[in-house]
């Protein structure tokens, strides 16, 4: 049975969601809607979907809302005029609000590099961060983890693999971790030959066998870059060496990841493939709240299979390991080249199978910087986007 709110939390937990209109943002709101008496939504942000943000605002009555796109912001203001909901004008004001509002946790569900600045501002404000946005950790994991330590803010993973590892590590000691094993559904093309992958269309790449997600991560999952980004994300979240991270394909997406300990024992976390599970875990941590999510029926046959991933076929995963081992600005370069390539694939300006070609070429010509600052990483990101776009145009 769920405990009544009064015994679970002393008062309602203040929550903000950055990227509330996306797949993770919407599912976070569903979890909150199932536990309305326990949470007070304080702040919602998105990029340009003013209609959905307005609907969410009218339903959940946050104290303030923000849209990054100024034109959409004007539309949002018109719709919300009759309601007592503050529409924030500039991002400076947004980040000030983080200091002023009583927040227990901020959910970061923005997609891509755009999540980095909010991540840094949330941590600088000393707020706990429930993080779905893996790209910020890929680009600036070291800086973010250092900042979280300095500000005594907690970073809780929402990505299902990292939530699984986090759960497997509860009660364990860092020195007892031998390695973590990230599972990958393998996406729709796991068993395709390289030649078959060369013929893949955009709509095939946008159809994921087990998860329903935003477009960018759906392409990343099909190209295995998502798993590559997750390898780097795991390094920072769990303080691992590159050789402590393995990846294995697990097409059923029921085991979300595993940890192998120094005594040879392996712990795995299982649940049906539904992001509401890891989202709820982060919102309630360290409490486990009752949920209506589907249960396994072990009286029926459940097949769990694991198979190696062919790194020659899925070059992106090999490139991500390379970037991780090299360190410095290399993960930021990998991420930026991938963001540019995926954007081009989504506009039908680049065939799906050429993503790894772009990433590899851009990485091989990059100038290595060992200890980039956050400002340098931002500059490197935008320069790499420009170079990648030039390369994409030149090969078409
Ligand atoms: P979506 O594309 O569905 O949503 C992205 C959200 O980010 C939207 O709310 C969008 O607003 C907002 N946004 C985009 N650009 C900006 C910007 N420049 N400034 C402010 N807000 C912005 O993505 P997902 O929800 O699928 O993924 C979000 C993150 O979570 C990604 O990093 C992904 O890798 C990660 N993740 C996602 C999973 C999933 O199941 N979807 C699973 C695990 C991790 P608007 O709608 O207005 O454009
Ligand atoms: Mg994941």
Question: Can you put this structure into words, describing what you see?
Answer:
47% of the residues lie in helices and 14% in strands. The chain has 17 helices and eleven strands. The strands form two sheets. It has a seven-stranded parallel β-sheet with strand order 4-3-2-1-5-6-7, with helices on both faces. β2, α3 and β3 form a beta-alpha-beta unit. α7 packs across α15, α14 runs antiparallel to α15 and α15 packs across α17. The radius of gyration is 21 Å and the shape is globular. The site of NADPH dihydro-nicotinamide-adenine-dinucleotide phosphate has 28 residues, from α2, β2, α7 and α11.
What portion of residues belong to β-strands? 5-15%
Query: What are the segments in which pLDDT stays under 50 over at least 5 consecutive residues?
Result: none
Order of helices and strands: HEHEHEHEHEHEHEHEHHHHEEEHHHHH
Number of domains as seen in the coordinates: 3
Which bin fits the share of residues in helices?
A: 40-55%
Strand order of the largest sheet: 4-3-2-1-5-6-7
- Give the bound compounds: NADPH dihydro-nicotinamide-adenine-dinucleotide phosphate, magnesium ion
The total strand number stands at 11
Total of DSSP H or I helical runs spanning 4+ residues: 17
Report the average pLDDT across residues: 96
The gyration radius over C-alpha positions equals 21 Å
**End-to-end gap:** 59 Å
Computed structural class: alpha/beta
The geometry reads as globular
Instruction: Summarize the biggest pleated sheet.
Output: 7 strands, parallel
């Amino acid at each position: 049975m769920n405990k009544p709110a009064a015994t679970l939390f002393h008062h309602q937990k203040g929550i903000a969601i950055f990227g509330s209109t996306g797949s993770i943002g919407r599912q976070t709101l569903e979890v909150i809607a199932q536990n309305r008496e326990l949470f007070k939504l304080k702040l919602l942000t998105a990029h340009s979907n003013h209609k959905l943000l307005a609907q969410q605002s009218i339903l959940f009555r946050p104290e303030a809302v923000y849209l990054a796109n100024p034109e959409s912001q004007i539309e949002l203001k018109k719709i919300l005029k009759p309601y007592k909901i503050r529409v924030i004008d500039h991002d400076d004001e947004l980040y000030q609000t983080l200091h002023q509002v009583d927040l227990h946790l901020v959910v970061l569900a923005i997609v891509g590099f755009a999540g980095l600045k909010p991540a840094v501002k949330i941590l600088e404000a000393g707020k706990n961060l429930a993080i779905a946005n893996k790209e910020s950790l890929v680009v600036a994991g070291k800086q973010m983890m250092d900042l979280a330590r300095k500000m005594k803010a907690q970073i809780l993973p929402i990505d299902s693999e990292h939530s699984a590892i986090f759960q497997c590590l509860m009660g364990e000691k860092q020195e007892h971790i031998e390695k973590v094993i990230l599972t990958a559904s393998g996406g729709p093309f796991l068993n395709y030959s390289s030649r078959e992958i060369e013929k893949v269309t955009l709509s095939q790449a946008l159809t994921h066998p087990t998860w329903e997600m935003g477009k960018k991560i759906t392409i990343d999952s099909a190209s295995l870059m998502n798993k590559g980004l997750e390898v780097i994300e795991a390094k920072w979240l769990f303080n691992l060496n590159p050789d402590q991270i393995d990846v294995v394909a697990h097409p059923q997406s029921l085991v979300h990841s595993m940890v192998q300990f120094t005594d040879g024992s392996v712990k795995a976390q299982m649940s049906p493939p539904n992001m509401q599970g890891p989202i709820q875990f982060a919102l309630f941590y360290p409490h486990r709240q009752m949920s209506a999510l589907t249960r396994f029926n072990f009286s029926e046959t459940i097949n769990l299979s694991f198979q190696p991933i062919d790194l020659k076929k899925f070059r992106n995963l090999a490139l991500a390991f390379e970037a991780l081992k090299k360190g410095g600005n290399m993960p930021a370069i990998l991420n930026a080249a991938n963001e540019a390539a995926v954007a081009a694939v989504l506009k039908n300006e680049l065939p799906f199978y050429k993503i790894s070609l772009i990433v590899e070429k851009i990485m091989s010509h990059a100038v290595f910087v060992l200890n980039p600052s956050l400002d340098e990483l931002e500059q490197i990101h935008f320069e790499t986007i420009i170079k990648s776009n030039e390369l994409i145009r030149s090969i078409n």
